[in-house]
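testing teh design pipeline on a random one, pls ignore if ur not involved
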């Protein structure tokens, strides 16, 4: 997986799991304790989230962190 590919994949999966819960970006950002602007950047594949951020998003979505990188 190329370095840019994982960020795009992560973003697509965050969007997928967020919409499955019918959550807005605002709701997920609040649950994950992230700024709305940062979360939107993650979904677009523009941010380089830390492992801690990935774990926060996964915990908020109640999924295993690895599912965000599948």
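output:
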């Amino acid at each position: 997986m190329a370095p840019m590919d994982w960020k795009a994949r992560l973003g697509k999966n965050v969007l997928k799991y967020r919409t499955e819960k019918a959550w807005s970006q605002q709701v997920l950002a609040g649950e994950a304790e992230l700024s709305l602007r940062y979360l939107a950047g993650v979904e677009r594949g523009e941010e380089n989230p830390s492992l801690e951020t990935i774990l926060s998003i996964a915990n908020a979505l109640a999924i295993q962190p690895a599912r965000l990188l599948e």
